[in-house]
Amino acid sequence: MKKTKASAGVPRAQIAAMPVRRLPNGRLEVMLVTSRTTRRWIVPKGWPIKGLTAPEAAAREAYEEAGVVGRIVKEPAGRYTYWKRKSDHFVLCEVTLFLLEVERQLPVWAEQGQRESRWFSPEDAADLVDEPELATAIRQATMALAA
Where is the Nudix hydrolase domain positioned along the sequence (predicted)? Predict the structure, then answer.
């Protein structure tokens, strides 16, 4: 499979939500979901959605992929790049990451049967994702929340 850059070498823009919750003991947890094709651990993400702001689109992805709803932080928590696998090539994507402070987790949601979702400590979440820049963003965002 060959790697191809998006038009004129510019990465394609995506948005993502990093669902977080605080336990009664004060500890933070981060929710990760598995990707549909490779089953690797990722944050809910997708393409921008016409008519929605980037944070609103990120919240929608978290709702559809992980069944979580809450307060989306409007300022980005970080950015990362990765190679998205297509059928016969890869596309370079730059993802803008937004924190989603989870208020509730739904019993049923759109992609429930297509993905696994699980809560992790920030340290474990950062260790489980394949993208080094995403791991860094998880560590930095959760350290800022914990402070």
Answer: 10-142
Q: Are strands 28-34 and 78-85 parallel, antiparallel or unpaired?
A: unpaired
Tell me which residue of 39, 22, 38, 33 sits closest to 101, measured CA to CA: 22
Total number of domains constituting the chain: 1
* Total-model pTM: 0.89
Amino acid letter, 112: Q
Please name which of 33, 38, 35, 58 lies closest in space to residue 46, comparing C-alpha atoms.
58
pLDDT in tens, 97-111: 999 999 999 999 989
Taken in order 121, 23, 98, 47, the sign of the CA dihedral is positive
Strand runs labelled E in 23-146 = 28-34, 41-42, 45-46, 68-72, 78-85, 89-105, 117-120
The enclosing domain of 81 has a CATH number of: 3.90.79.10
Q: What is the CA radius of gyration of the chain?
A: 15
